[in-house]
């Protein structure tokens, strides 16, 4: 069952007439890449969330949760799929496949060997669909959209480093799209990817968990976002992956969060859609981890 929240400013998302966009403003429909959790499980430990969860996830429940997420996203965006491959249970977290914009994809170089087998399949998927594919030097780890998030207007790229992605990758990203890269150091191993603790949102807002960053990184965030545009997340919500948000227009799709945080988003005119994703949190991921944003619709 899909859990949705009507925050008092819109119909719920599963209403066929609902649109998160202002109908007077033409917008291009978003596209996301997803991978069915047919082979998903927690079978190794490469982040703190996996510790203690080896073989504890329910694949049937994960399939139900993924289907609910897919259903909600499909109402506000196009969804393309990549087939899961045996021996790669984390392939479901497509955000880590790479970073794409304007038809150019920088592929990931996964830090952990357990995920490196995914790279060939993501490379093939993008090449077969006409994307220009950029590969970084093997020795430079980079984990895609998990650690690199474009601002709404595409002029700034927020890029995390310190856990999975090397700061040296940021120069390649800047050169690829001729974009300013703001490097943010991740100091808490629980928040090992930028998209677990930081979310630039429509309207110039940002939602983030401050303790995940060092002081210089926090200053960078504060310098670029006015105080009234900052939505600070506390630890209980951060531990529920509240910052792991899929944002399309004024819709935000995410795991279950507190009433307080939901109210803060509603006060800023966001439509809040909560989809329980507990089975994926056992592996260290939630809504945003399960999608990769694409700049064009690709027929499968």
> Fraction of residues in helices?
10-25%
The geometry reads as globular
Assembly annotation? single chain
Number of strands: 15
Tally the helices: what do you get? 8
- What fraction of residues sit in β-strands? 15-25%
Biggest sheet, strands in spatial order?
A: 2-1-15
The main sheet comes to: 3 strands, mixed
| Mean pLDDT figure | 91
Low-confidence stretches: 1-27
* Helix-strand sequence: EHEEEHHEEEHEEEHEHEEHEHE
Radius of gyration: 18 Å
Distance between the termini: 27 Å
Computed structural class: alpha/beta
Textual characterization of the structure:
This protein has 300 residues and is an alpha/beta fold. Mean pLDDT is 91; it is low at 1-27. It is globular and about 45 Å long. It starts with 29 loop residues before the first strand and ends in a 6-residue tail after the last strand. It has a three-stranded mixed beta sheet, with helices on one face. Strands 3-4-5 form a three-stranded mixed beta sheet, sandwiched between helices. The protein has eight helices and 15 strands. It has helices spanning 59-74, 113-116, 119-128, 169-177, 215-224, 235-238, 259-267, 278-281, and strands spanning 30-34, 77-81, 98-101, 104-107, 132-134, 148-150, 156-161, 180-185, 198-201, 205-208, 230-232, 246-248, 251-254, 271-274, 292-294.
What are its keywords?
three-stranded mixed beta sheet; 22% helix; disordered N terminus; alpha/beta; 300 residues
What is the element layout, followed by pairings?
Layout: E1 30-34, H1 59-74, E2 77-81, E3 98-101, E4 104-107, H2 113-116, H3 119-128, E5 132-134, E6 148-150, E7 156-161, H4 169-177, E8 180-185, E9 198-201, E10 205-208, H5 215-224, E11 230-232, H6 235-238, E12 246-248, E13 251-254, H7 259-267, E14 271-274, H8 278-281, E15 292-294
Parallel strand pairs: 1-2, 4-5, 7-8, 10-11, 13-14
Antiparallel strand pairs: 1-15, 3-4, 6-7, 9-10, 12-13
């Amino acid at each position: 069952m899909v859990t949705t929240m009507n925050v008092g400013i819109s119909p719920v998302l599963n209403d066929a007439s609902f649109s998160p966009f202002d109908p007077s403003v033409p917008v291009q429909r978003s596209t996301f890449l997803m991978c069915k959790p047919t082979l998903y499980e927690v079978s190794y430990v490469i982040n703190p969330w996996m510790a203690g969860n080896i073989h504890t996830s329910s694949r049937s429940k994960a399939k139900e949760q993924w289907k609910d997420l897919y259903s909600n996203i499909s109402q506000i965006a196009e969804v393309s799929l990549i087939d899961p491959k045996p021996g790669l249970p984390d392939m479901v977290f497509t955000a880590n496949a790479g970073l794409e914009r304007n038809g150019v994809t920088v592929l990931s170089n996964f830090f952990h060997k357990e995920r490196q087998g995914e790279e060939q399949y993501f490379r093939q998927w993008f090449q077969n669909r006409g994307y220009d594919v950029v590969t970084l030097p093997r020795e430079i780890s980079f984990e895609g959209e998990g650690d690199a998030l474009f601002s709404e207007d595409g002029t700034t790229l927020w890029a995390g480093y310190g856990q999975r992605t090397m700061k040296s990758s940021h120069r390649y990203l800047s050169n690829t799209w001729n974009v300013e890269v703001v490097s943010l150091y991740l100091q808490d191993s629980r928040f090992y990817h930028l998209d677990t603790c930081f979310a630039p949102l429509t309207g110039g807002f940002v939602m983030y968990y401050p303790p995940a960053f060092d002081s210089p990184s926090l200053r960078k965030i504060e310098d670029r976002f006015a105080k009234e545009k900052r939505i600070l997340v506390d630890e209980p919500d951060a531990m529920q992956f509240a910052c792991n948000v899929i944002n399309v227009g004024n819709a935000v799709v995410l795991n279950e969060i507190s009433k307080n945080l939901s109210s803060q988003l509603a006060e800023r005119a966001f439509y809040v859609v909560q989809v329980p994703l507990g089975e994926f949190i056992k592996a260290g991921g939630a809504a945003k981890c399960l999608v990769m944003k694409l700049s064009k619709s690709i027929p499968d």
